[in-house]
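Appendix B. Chain record.
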Amino acid sequence: MMVTTSDAQTFARALYEALISTVLKQLRTAAPKLAEISDDEPDLSNRIKSALPSGAAPEVRNFLMTLAQEDRLDQLPTIIEAFAAYSGSIADSDMLDAEVISAVPLGTAQQQHITDALRKQYNSPLNIDFTVDESLIGGLIIRVGDQVLDNSLRVRLSAIQRNMLTS
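Structure tokens predicted for this chain:
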């Protein structure tokens, strides 16, 4: 079974969200326990390890150790919220641009139906522009990212004409 680009994007987004949410959960679990640690703690490394949930990523432990060495553990809650906001902004920047071109202006219900279908198909937030190109005669051209679905009447008539000429 071949994985399509949209399937790959769906799996990649799920992996990304799982990793980010796991790291955030680990940091949020450790933050209250680390709030009472002083920077001159004799066994700082073990205190940080014990503050983290079991199976925490080594990168999270190393990050917390760096904060402790830089005397910045008190800033951990602010850093966690900034990280959560930053990860959300990365996800927002992954919004796909889409364009739906029709021969005539589409009604609100038609636009909503197309929007719902595209969001379901791509499982991603979309920024959709609806435009009109009267030369299409009928049908739609839909562009999402680098994919194009040309279901316009002009293309269908051209295909019929090519089939008739080759017959």
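Further analysis of this model is presented in Appendix C.
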